[in-house]
């Protein structure tokens, strides 16, 4: 038996329970890990609250982490017992002392990257990469808008986009987060609790708008985000921390011939080769210092409920990690 967080009913952070579970042995193509660090993401909240559907109840939350391989199943040849690996994938289950995963979903973690850093960047870093390089290709001279610029993905988006030569506009909720966003490469920071972000973006861009908006906030910012786009701009809605946006009539996009997409990470790393290439690129950005990863809050795995509560109440900045 090992300890894990279990959810028996959907609801608030209080439904996260610390319990004994049976893991079993890895089957063909599987690997058993002893987790060293577990990343917390808003997708974990979406599953817990029912925004995203879980396969069944009870379940163990979590999609990313770093662990040491303790056993391998039949047919696993490219991952060895004792190796430290990172992952960001489903099925859910990383909020556990030990975890069984498919070998094809694991990538070796370079020795130069601390497991806590590795656990904090797999989902957020791979997401940042596909958002900037595949979903919409950001190039020098582009002006982009990043909501929640001091959050886990937002921090990485600002840094990576700045390194690509883009002008970065970010929205945050307070002055402390504004200072962090500036450090992370935001050229213009908008405190949305003090000023209207649409009017400010219009002022910054001299009425031209931005090439792309990266919006993980959802309902509260969606319409304003569309208003910030230039002609033929791209609206990338990749989260809904404030709630699911209202339905969008196609006619609202026609006013400026806008593009709208709702992407997910799993559709941008379909094959193992794609995953290894993306992870290698991400790790190189971290090792070279292009990306400075902010792990501002760590919690014991047993206190996952407190971590979720702080995340939802916007008390955290950067990445949140659970330690088994």
UniProtKB/TrEMBL annotation:
GO terms for molecular function: mRNA 3'-UTR AU-rich region binding; NADPH binding; quinone reductase (NADPH) activity. Pfam families: ADH_N (PF08240), ADH_zinc_N (PF00107). Residues 11-322 form the Enoyl reductase (ER) domain. It comes from the Eukaryota. SMART domains: PKS_ER. SUPFAM superfamilies: GroES-like, NAD(P)-binding Rossmann-fold domains. Keywords: NADP, Oxidoreductase. One of its GO terms (cellular component) is cytosol. The keyword Oxidoreductase applies. CDD domains: QOR2. NCBIfam families: PRK10754.1 (NF008024). This is Probable quinone oxidoreductase. It comes from Vigna angularis var. angularis. The gene is Vigan.06G004000.
């Amino acid at each position: 038996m090992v300890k894990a967080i279990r959810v028996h009913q959907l609801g608030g952070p209080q439904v996260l329970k610390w319990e004994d579970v049976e893991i079993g042995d890895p089957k063909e193509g599987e690997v058993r890990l002893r987790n060293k660090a577990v990343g917390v993401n808003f997708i974990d909240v979406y599953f817990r609250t029912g925004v995203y559907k879980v396969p069944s109840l009870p379940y163990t939350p979590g999609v990313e982490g770093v662990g040491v391989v303790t056993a391998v199943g039949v047919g696993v040849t490219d991952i060895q017992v004792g190796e430290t690996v990172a992952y960001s994938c489903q099925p859910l289950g990383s909020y556990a002392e030990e975890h069984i995963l498919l070998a094809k979903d694991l990538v070796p973690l370079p020795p130069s990257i601390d497991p806590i850093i590795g656990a904090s960047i797999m989902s957020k870093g791979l997401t940042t990469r596909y958002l900037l390089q595949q979903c919409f290709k950001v190039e020098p001279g582009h002006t982009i808008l990043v909501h929640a610029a001091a959050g886990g993905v937002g921090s990485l988006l600002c840094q990576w986009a700045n390194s690509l030569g883009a002008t970065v506009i970010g929205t945050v909720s307070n002055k402390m987060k504004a200072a962090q966003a500036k450090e992370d490469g935001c050229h213009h920071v908008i405190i949305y609790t003090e000023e209207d972000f649409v009017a400010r973006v219009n002022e910054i861009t001299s009425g031209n708008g931005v090439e792309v908006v990266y919006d993980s906030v959802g309902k509260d910012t969606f319409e304003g985000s569309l208003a910030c786009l230039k002609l033929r701009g791209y609206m990338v809605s990749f989260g809904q921390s404030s709630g699911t946006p209202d339905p969008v009539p196609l006619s609202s996009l026609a006013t400026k011939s806008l593009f709208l997409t709702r992407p997910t990470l799993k559709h941008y790393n379909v094959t193992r080769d794609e995953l290894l290439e993306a992870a290698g690129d991400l790790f190189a950005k971290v090792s070279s210092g292009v990306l400075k990863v902010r792990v501002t809050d760590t919690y014991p795995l047993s206190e996952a409920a407190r971590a979720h509560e702080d995340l939802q109440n916007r008390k955290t900045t950067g990445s949140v990690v659970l330690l088994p």
